[in-house]
Automatic annotation (TrEMBL):
Record flagged with keyword Iron: yes
Alphabetized UniProt keyword annotations: Electron transport, Heme, Iron, Metal-binding, Signal, Transport
Keyword Iron: yes
Protein name, UniProt field: Cytochrome c
Protein's organism: Microvirga terricola
Cleavable signal peptide: 1-20
Amino acid sequence: MKRVILVAGLLALGVTAALAESSVVEQRQALMKQMGGETKTTGGMLRGQEPFDLAKAQAALKTISTNAKKASSLFPESSKATTEKTEALPAIWDSKATFDSSFSKLEQDAQAAMSSIKDEASFKAEFPKVLQNCGTCHKTFRKG
């Protein structure tokens, strides 16, 4: 009887751990999609496809900054072996300090841009510096 309870407990623990990892992957994907949505809006402003809107630019930077603070914790070592569809490369965990520092830099650059962007000219000068972080990280740590 004790053995049955022990096996059932271990099985429940394994299922709970799998669900927790699923949640982490889903959380990070949602976080990244949210940042991607913000870059679509601001990218349109950068290309002149949408009129410049300081409030939208500042809101995008705030989202990027906030999400960059959260992102590193959503890539625990245990999520490396997930069976879920993800574009995260093993390089994330092989170079975790570099990966984490890329989010720190993104957050710092977004904060700096929030302080310095006051008009369309400063937006066009500063926002690409924030976006450069995204491209650098994607080239190293993301499939595709």
